[in-house]
Design a protein that fits this description.
2 copies of one chain form a homodimer. Chain A is mainly alpha-helical. Helices cover about 65% and strands about 5% of the residues of chain A. In chain A, a hairpin with a 3-residue loop joins β2 and β3 (about 240-245). In chain A, α5 (about 95-120) runs antiparallel to α6 and α15 packs across α17. The radius of gyration of chain A is 23 Å and the shape is globular.
């Protein structure tokens, strides 16, 4: 068999996925109201087609033929390895189970939306219980030797066990909880002056300016509006970001855009040599979040980031001319316990994630029942953040990830912070301090460093390999803790 | 074999085409600059997949199994008939020839663009010659019993031979040429007052207003900007139209939008019962053009169309308050010979089409050689329009349809005018005069009549069946000629 056949096969899978990505983007940004059902049907047909290709006998043949073929180049070797991993993990899932599960999560997402709106956990409970059961069953088909939650973590973060994550998160907690505690005794800065009435087209103008400023390439992407911000596309030539506009508060749009810009820059800088293989994507969710959070927080919430371009904000929104950069900087860095994850500050965000990780873990060991989730949620909120949601809408029902079955996804967010801390520290060693680079507007040096060390490899390296190659170390919580302590000690005069 | 299998098969083909349509729309409206190549590759892969499905052994089985199955419902019978027609016409085309032809036309389109830019027919000539040869060869594989040009006409207008079209066009010429001649002796109205500086977002606002006014449904569609206006989508729930904006002249956008709106209304009103079959599209190009041209010309260029909404134009563009409706109406109905088809008026437009039809026909009978096309073009322009292009850019090189191999496509435009004349006359008999309906703003009655008589059937009826069922007659040139004579006699006091 010729390797060309394998190339063609992968290429066809990529083209199917290309179409799926575009339809999904369209669904969330452009599709007319009544097109939703037919759009979803087409997405489902093409996804199934691609899934079937990933577990076909043809793939098995490819694996058997080429697995030990030393003549394959590196890209093809890694591609085959990726195909094999998907094949091994999916081949034993009974089609009936897969279809039942897919249609159940589609339903449960709708039930969850309604339940969230009505603060009615009980209506959602049986659906969530069933999702947990399905996930246990699927995990057994994927790998019966691993514990269930580890199998699910593996969907998002290859090779990291829940024990390992637990250790990392314990360390993270130890660094963060005292910091949050100290800050809570300080006076809160008054940020009410930052609120106003900000027209959407002006927010868009500023967003585009900032995206270009950080190095997002509009020849290979675009910015649109959607209910929840996201990044999607077919890397590297078409990577689209979205944002939402809060009329009263530009912070939500600004940092959303910088965050998605970080995801976008990652995918735009994947090596074109990986196109038409399964490797032309970010290697995993954790590394992806490391890039978006590095841009959003470590760069975007640094006063030196804004110094050279703050006048641009005032140009587009003259009301900001009356707001001193120092106040703006303090306002975007307010640390305070809050109920909603996606609105949390840089520091307490981690605690929101740790809470979810611990609950997920207990759900799958059997230490926690779905019916006891709301109470467990409240207890952990009290413990880590000192506040308790009055409703489940602001508590256990706030996120969509459990409703759509994505258990194991949450940890990636905090892992992203840890990885981002490591990368930032290493970058500072190699090309200069972030303060200096930002002040000198050398976002290009930052992007080049990230591209050379991380982006261009796509899925050629796992997260562990990337961290080892770039930082010469294992996963390490210390750099992000150092960064937090350093930053917030100065900001809050701790 | 169960009929469910046939349904699933058609459904999958529809979903593939759904994705292709969306990617093509995206390519022309939203895709970032650097995404073009990967987008085209994905479009090509999915189109090929759909084409392969249309000539597969599975389709052959379906035809053999169900062709004489009286239990099939009407929709399935017609769907199977359509599948069969495609199968029969495509199955004998050698794959090698098909691929060669596809890649040749892709290349020749690029060569044509360059040739048009440089007024250099000679550089394009060998490519066009090869396209003619390829088309002859393909036609022989499709149906060796028919003459070549008839086979090609059949791609766009099922069942109409070139002889029949020739007769229709002779009649059309006889009606039009004297009218144009008479008008040429009249003074041209001064329409310079209609030119100005019209901001794009205001043109968009007016376009949306007018689309809604004529009955285009934004819950099942949207309006975007593109270099050339077009309508696409997946009927009936997602049918998108585009327009372009000429800063100096709003006419181009206004009538482009009404034209595409006509196409869009057609597809939006196809019966939902045809979804997931090959029948949920307009039945052929001629009927499609009949709808767009009926809206654009017979309705949109009638003074009664504008009377109730002309104040809206002045609201959005205050400069129009100084322009009397009578002048506006005269300006949008100026008849004068011109070089460029897409800018021609309602009347002379037909002559541009007839000229192209006659040249196409002669090319395929062998009466005309490609090398003699430019001269033949000039002679016919002189004969029918009394003017001669100074360059081939404004002559034989102006359209893309020959470069992309779409011989047989042009006649649909003029057939659309003929059909539109018949439909309009019949509608007036059944629900009241167009003048009256427009004056009373009963665009809903017009749309309902078109939906009930034409739109909802999609491809369930051929153009001949539609005309017979709606107008109780064959194709008939008289109604459109009567309309032209009536309209232009009054307008120009002939």
């Amino acid at each position: 068999m010729k390797v060309e056949l394998l190339r063609e096969y992968m290429s066809k899978m990529c083209d199917l996925n290309h179409a799926v990505q575009l339809m999904q983007w369209d669904l969330k940004t452009k599709a007319p109201k009544n097109a939703v059902d037919t759009h979803i049907a087409a997405i489902s047909t093409l996804s199934t087609e691609s899934f079937k290709m990933s577990i076909s006998d043809q793939v098995k043949d490819f694996i058997e033929t080429f697995e030990h073929d030393e003549k394959l180049d590196d890209i093809m070797k890694k591609s085959l390895k990726d195909l094999k991993r998907t094949y091994e993990r999916s081949k034993n899932i009974p089609e009936k189970l897969y279809n039942e599960y897919t249609s159940h999560t589609a339903k449960s997402e709708m039930v969850w939306e309604e339940a969230k709106r009505n603060n009615d956990f009980e209506s959602f409970r049986p659906y969530l219980e069933k999702i947990v059961v399905y996930n246990k069953e699927m995990a057994a088909h994927i790998d019966s030797n691993q514990n269930v939650y580890d199998v699910m973590l593996d969907n998002f973060e290859t090779g990291l066990s829940s024990d390992k994550i637990n250790n990392l998160f314990e360390e993270l907690k130890k660094g963060i909880v005292p910091l949050v505690e100290s800050i809570s005794h300080k006076e809160r800065v008054d940020d009410s002056k930052l609120l106003g009435n900000f027209e959407e087209y002006k927010q868009k103008e500023l967003s585009e300016y900032i995206l270009k400023y950080i190095g997002y390439d509009f020849d290979c992407g675009r910015l649109d509006k959607s209910e929840h911000p996201f990044t999607t596309g077919t890397a590297p030539y078409d990577v689209r970001v979205t944002t939402r506009y809060d009329k009263k508060d530009i912070k939500s749009c600004l940092f959303g855009v910088i965050h998605e810009g970080g995801h976008g820059i990652y995918e735009q800088n994947i090596s074109p040599s990986l196109i038409k293989t399964p490797l032309a994507v970010g290697t995993c969710m954790g590394i992806h979040e490391s890039q978006s959070r590095l841009y959003e927080n470590i760069l975007g919430k640094n006063i030196r980031f804004w110094e050279p371009i703050y006048s641009k904000v005032g140009e587009i929104f003259p009301e900001f001319k009356a707001i001193e950069l120092e106040l703006f900087h303090k306002a975007i860095n307010i640390v305070e316990p809050s109920l909603i994850r996606v609105e949390a500050d840089e520091l307490t965000y981690n605690l929101h994630i740790i809470l979810r990780f611990e609950l997920e873990k207990d759900l799958f060991t059997g230490d926690l029942q779905v019916k006891d989730l709301p109470q467990a949620w409240r207890e952990k909120m009290k413990k880590y953040l000192g506040i308790v949601p009055k409703t489940d809408t602001d508590g256990v029902l706030q996120d969509c990830h459990w409703a759509d079955g994505s258990f194991g996804y949450f940890p990636s967010y905090a892992l992203g912070n840890i990885y981002g801390g490591q990368f930032a520290a290493q970058m500072e060693k190699e090309v200069g301090t972030i303060d200096y680079l930002l002040k000198e507007q050398r976002l290009d040096i930052i992007k080049d460093w990230l591209r050379n060390n991380i982006h261009r490899f796509g899925k050629m390296k796992t997260s562990a390999e990337l961290i080892k190659d770039v930082c010469k170390s294992d996963i390490d919580v210390k750099p992000i803790i150092d960064y937090y302590q350093n930053k917030y000690s100065r900001l809050y005069h701790l």
